[in-house]
Amino acid sequence: MIVVLSGGVGGARLCAGLMQVFAPDEMLIVVNNGDDFDHWGLRVCPDLDTVMYTLSGRVDEQQGWGVRQETWQVLEAVVAAGGEGWFRIGDGDLATHLIRTEQLRAGRSLSSVTQALMHTHGIRHQVVPSTDDHHRSLVLTDAGLLDFQTYFVRRRCEPRLLGLQMDSRAADGGPARPAQAWAAAMMRQVDAVLVCPSNPILSIQPMLTLLGVRDWLRRRSFPVLAVSPFIGGGAIKGPAAKIFGECGLETSVRGLAGWYEGLVDGWLVDSNDAEEVRTLAGLGFQARVANTWLDSDERRRGVAGALKEWLRDGVALAPGREGGRIAVDRT
Amino acid sequence: MIVVLSGGVGGARLCAGLMQVFAPDEMLIVVNNGDDFDHWGLRVCPDLDTVMYTLSGRVDEQQGWGVRQETWQVLEAVVAAGGEGWFRIGDGDLATHLIRTEQLRAGRSLSSVTQALMHTHGIRHQVVPSTDDHHRSLVLTDAGLLDFQTYFVRRRCEPRLLGLQMDSRAADGGPARPAQAWAAAMMRQVDAVLVCPSNPILSIQPMLTLLGVRDWLRRRSFPVLAVSPFIGGGAIKGPAAKIFGECGLETSVRGLAGWYEGLVDGWLVDSNDAEEVRTLAGLGFQARVANTWLDSDERRRGVAGALKEWLRDGVALAPGREGGRIAVDRT
């Protein structure tokens, strides 16, 4: 069983490749839902939906999220009636939020609702939210502590990021826990964990803060492979480079390797960054190169295939994985 | 102060006329909300919305409800995702339900939310739901006890109606009460009550069952004028004639006068039913004729003007208004 940790667009695109090289019963896709929020009274789960639309082929490939040939009738009507329009929900996408919200209000878990939605979209691979508990990312910035989507969409990531904080609790008042399917995988033998080229701080970190996840990774006997979200010192998409800079981190695989200290054994880096392989080797990390630009079905399958091949070849565990406090704790 | 009791399409159309002959501070429009229901997790208030869209000129005049040039993107997407499509919510209309539901969930009353929505639609006359309490119409039929919209939309009123029952309770467990603005009007001096040509059983009866409404009408010192929803023995629109037949009532103004026993002083009947005026006079009711086909702005204003003129001329209270149990109780 491969556990895949995925965030938004980059994660979804890699998952679309992984789906082609791993069978449904070989892979569990865990999707960040720290950026879920309520808008127009509906539960919106941007990363889960990006994965769903991408895996089902419904996605708007141009922008990377939302559905293709989307219309905006309701948004226009809501704005005309004085409602909020800064978070743009299209009509096709809205149907997802309506169905999800109604089922959540009826008492179903997000995992269960997600399973049903994925099934409706013809997705046979298992996709789960990282948690069914309340677990919301708050962004500490020089403009104050902002709700995630206020920071990410409304303010376009313009405020300087100082750190991420989780507003997080289980129904019993305890810490938020991984969703049941993920927790079950943690208990069983896992063959590998794959970390998608998603924003390490905004998308991956919220999942690492769930109860027991760090310990599970630190004590692992399975390899963790990660695909770098950076190419040539910049992010392929999104604000990862800006944010890394604000956190005083180098926007390179070396910077990433430091940030993921002890959590990642092998790095798949873009062919353009081949020289990084030597740097990483010097730090004791394994690395391979591939064309990690995930802009076509073929390339996605290529990257997924490279990861699968690497796992087949064997991956040694990285140095420092039993190290102390990991960088993730800094925020 | 004139209190107008309104239901769906016929009521909304008369209100559009009344709006032209009575100033905003002269009239309170009370709208049935016994047929409110939750669909796609949203609160839908069909009669309130029909009044809102009609008074604001947004209505689809052809069908009498919903908004003009409506689109159905979300409905298509919901149905494609396995959701329910029997109650057709258009995209423009959906925006109303989203805004309403979000505000209700934030703790605002339906009266307050309705006021805001009407304001957004540029409506200066006061429009209130009949009640802010839980007050849902259930239809007892030969196919069982059905939710109102299941009976009305999903089953197209095909089952034989045996009676209406209210699933009704205030938050404190007591009986549902008229909304605050209506209750306040009841306390003050009311100049007249106007009953719209709405379905007497499906639209008007739910309002009459609210706490204190029958007593208020029975003990009145103000006149009640009603516009007949029947023309030539049939309903102008909707299932009123079928339902009256199923209840063993005559589909005529005489049948109506009997059903509204003691509650209505004067009947405005269509010019085609001029002979009914004599019948009603024989029963001690006053009646006038007008062209009650409310299919144009001009005709709506005409009917409204006829009612206003009648009130100015004076209306004697009907016989039997202090009578015992009224027909409304039969169901």
Quick overview:
Chain A has 331 residues and is of the alpha/beta class. Chain A is built from 13 helices and 14 strands.
**Biggest β-sheet description of chain A:** 7 strands, parallel
Q: Would you list the SSEs of chain A in sequence order as H and E?
A: EHEEEHHHHEEEHEHEHHEEEHHEHEH
Q: How many distinct beta strands of chain A?
A: 14
In oligomeric terms, what are we looking at? homodimer
Tally the helices of chain A: what do you get?
Answer: 13
Average pLDDT number of chain A: 93
Radius of gyration of chain A, Cα only, in angstroms?
A: 19 Å
Shape of chain A: globular
Structural class based on helices, strands and sheet pairing of chain A = alpha/beta
Q: What is the rounded distance between the termini of chain A? A: 31 Å
| Strand line-up across the major sheet of chain A | 5-2-1-9-10-13-14
